[in-house]
Structures are given as structure tokens and as C-alpha cells.
Amino acid sequence: MNKLLGYILTPVFYFFFFLTLIIFQPIQWVCYRFFGYQAHKRSVDFLNFFLTYSQVFLGNTTTFVNTQPLPLNQPIIFVANHQSMYDIPGIIWFMRKYHVKFISKIELTKGIPSISFNLKYGGGANINRKDSKQAVSEIIKLGRRMKDNNWSAMIFAEGTRAKDGQMKPFQVGGIATLLKAAPNALVVPIAIENSWKIVQYGGYPLSAGEKIRWTVLPPVSTADKNAEELTLAAEMAIRSFLKQPVKA
User: Fold this and answer.
1) pTM of this prediction?
2) Can you tell me the distance from the alpha carbon of 214 to that of 211, in angstroms, rounded to the nearest whole number?
3) Do the beta carbons of residue 58 and residue 208 sit within 8 Å?
4) Is the distance from CB of 101 to CB of 145 less than 8 angstroms?
5) Using CA atoms, how far apart are residues 26 and 32, in angstroms rounded to an integer?
């Protein structure tokens, strides 16, 4: 039934999703060019509000649970499993007060309405995966911006999407580099559920009637832990919440 409904509802979803991207491209440009960072960020927040709730056109529900008393005066590294591109809008919208920035492929800074503009000017790190020196440099710059502004960063530590929802081992590189530049950053896991189901049949049809859920878990204790141990602790917290075993 999810697939059958998807055939009917996917065109409606795509129409409103891409219409939102087109509408917010000039809005972002005006906000950034004439009013600066705060106005641009606010436009990005509302862009992602509409992208998040465009799931209603597929009959999908979105639930974001955050009961953690996270500080606003300290940089945070959010660490999550990654299932689809639909993981991202909800994090930006629901965690907007934490100024969450992303590490993205540099190729995404061109050609995508609204998204490319935000990646280019929003304060995240745009890395060339074929140039490790450039990638490390950009992540360090992001870490410094986090430290200076009490911003946060989002790390999808698997390094790629888990298309079947089964988590892959977390990689330490991005987290370790950010911690070098912002050693006082708090590490906070986020468990993502069911967004992989949206694209389980590919780009068409998208699956309808799914229940997407993000859950912010308690911060990882940083006492006497290095970057590798913090990364493993975040991975284990998410695996435990999602009831996913460690792969041999």
C-alpha cells in the first residue's frame, strides 16, 4: 500500500518540495546580501520548516524528540546515523537555536536552488573528498567558527547513507578534526528512524505513510575520552536506542 500510494502522491510531493526550493532562493539572496547572517539564517530555518513538513504530501509523519537540556553557550557536535537526504531538514528546523552547520561535498554548492546557496554562504564546511588537505582545512575552519560563535555541527559519522536502515561503523575523522579546533565542544548523539523507507523504492515512487522520527540522546561524557572513544560511545548510544547490533 505504501508503494501504491507513493505512485500517486510522489508527484505532488516533488512539486511542493522543489517549489519551496525555488521560492526560497531569492529570499535567501536578499536576506544574505542586505541583512546579514541572522536574517539569512532565519530564511534557511523557514526553508527547512517547509521542506520538513512537505512530507505531509506523502502522508508521512515527522516527530522530533529532544528532552535534553543542551547549552546555548557551548559548541555542540551532533552525531547521527544517516539514512536519506530527508534526515537533514528536520535537524535544521527543530535544532535551529543551536545554529547547526553541515560538512558537505563541495559539488553540492552549485546547481541546487536554495540548498547550494545555503551551503556556500551558511557557514558550514564544503569539502573536496579528493583533496584531503583541503577537506581537513575546511573542517578546522568550521571548528573555529563553532568555538567563536557557539555554533554546532552535524556529523553523519557513517560517511554514507545506510539505504536499508542498518547502521555502518562510525568514522572518527570529522569528529576528531572538529574537536581539535573546538576542544570544549559537547558530543550529542541523534538517532534517526525510518527516513530510509521514504526512498526504499528509489526516487520514484517515494514511499507513503511512513513515520520519520529523530530522537536527541543524552550527551556523551567527555571525561577522559579521546576522539575515538567519544565516536564509539555515540555510535553505541544510537545502536542501543535503535536496537541495532554491532556488525562483526
Assistant:
1) 0.94
2) 10
3) yes
4) yes
5) 10
What pLDDT does 190 receive? 98
3-state helix/strand/coil string of 147-165: HHHCCEEEEECCCCCCCCC
Domains of the chain: 2-242 (3.40.1130)
pLDDT at position 245 is 85
Angle at CA of residue 236, ends 231 and 240, nearest 5°: 155
Per-residue pLDDT reduced to its tens digit, 63-88: 999 999 999 999 999 999 999 999 99
Q: In 3-state terms, what secondary structure has residue 53? A: helix
Beta carbons of 113 and 23 less than 8 angstroms apart = no
Question: Quick one: which H or E segment has residue 193?
Answer: strand 186-193
Q: What is the pLDDT of residue 248?
A: 55
Of 168, 149, 148, the closest CA to residue 157 belongs to 168
Residue from 154, 151, 124 nearest 216 by CA: 154
Q: Which residues contact 106 (CB under 8 A, 6 or more apart)?
A: 126, 127, 128
The pLDDT assigned to 106 comes to: 95
- What 8-state DSSP symbol labels residue 194? S
Low-confidence ranges of the chain (pLDDT < 70): 247-248
Q: Do the strands 61-65 and 211-216 form a parallel or antiparallel pair, or are they unpaired?
A: parallel
DSSP E strand boundaries for 61-170: 61-65, 76-80, 100-105, 125-127, 152-156
